[in-house]
Fold:
Amino acid sequence: NTPGPLPALLPRALHRLLSPRVAGLHRICAARRAVAGFRIRRPCTDRHGHGRRPVGEGGPARSPRRDRLKVAPNRPTINDVAALAGVSKSLVSLAMRGSERVSPESRAAILDAANTLGYRPNAAARSLADRRSHTIGVVVQDLLNPIYAEIIDGLQSEVRGHGYHTMLVTGNEDSVVERGEIEKLLEFQVEGLMLIGHRMPSGALDAIAGDCPAVIISRAERGIAGLDSISNDDVAGARMAVDHLVSLSHRSIAHVTGGENEVALLRRSGYEESMAAHGLADQIACYDGAFTDEGGYRGAAAALDSGAGHTALFVANDLAAVGALAAAAERGVAVPADVSIVGYDGMALAGLRSLSITTIAQPLAQIGAEAATLLFQRIEDPARPPAYIGVEPRLIVRNSTGPLIA
Structure:
């Protein structure tokens, strides 16, 4: 097909697109010159090198186009909003940051005044004025893992309640990438950091805590000055999973691991300890997996194809358990009639009827909210001793586990 008249229209389209922006820039420049109380002496030649009569100090502008430019009215300020709403400037500032310390009546009056005046807060100016960015940096390892979204949802509610906002970056499961992203957040003058499922060594954490208040989520970090942490008890949760399967008369219980990261190793340790406590040390069997559906599929496939006759699988997390369900379905292995499957984390998707995965659940939103509380306590009192909060997991029984059928 022959192209239509689009190429010919492009210059005109670009002109329509750019003209308002160019005109806007001219208006801004004219306003600034007017406020400064003088006109800039322009060269005696135009851009083509032709002669032009210079404009004298305060003399009339020679360009009709420039004569038509009007000085834009001053933008409304926070003081204007406060005056119209009949409140203080500080209360307007709190309301604009979404603080819960503002009553609904005052908030409504402030927002109505702001809308009437066309007021828009200038975050950069506010940061310069009070030397605070009112921003918290959040570093998450894997945005594809649903549990991180639930943790972030919990922490954001608490952050907004303090009149702050979050800036989110991802570490991509790489300590070097993670450290680089943290440096960028620090360049934006974030007032605190929350690291979810981090991959950095303790030495790097020590340096970060020296730069900025920080909280570690999903890992226990004790004894680092300026650093707080919150996590669930992964060892206890893994024991809970094995205990549940043993209560259903399963003995050949395999574990699909989550890799070599600290959380995965703790869950593996809890599995092995519980198997030994039940007199099943000779039944311990671990298959390499990862905290992904593909990793769970790979580990479960190896377990089901091993010929060991496993009747139950404890999978390192819920996302991997989804992969384990797929591996069982492809092999015609019925869940839970032929094999029972337990996941970990309590992600919301695990409760879908099509999955219905028995899981060891963490209170994810609660963890996020308590992490934010820890961080604001650290911001207010940087010298206080390091704090750690341990959260107990709980068993949620669904359709992926059942009693051993002889």
Summary: Confidence is low (pLDDT under 50) at residues 1-49, 52-72. The two ends are 70 Å apart (CA to CA). The first helix runs from residue 6 to 36. The CA atoms of residues 120 and 269 lie 54 Å apart.
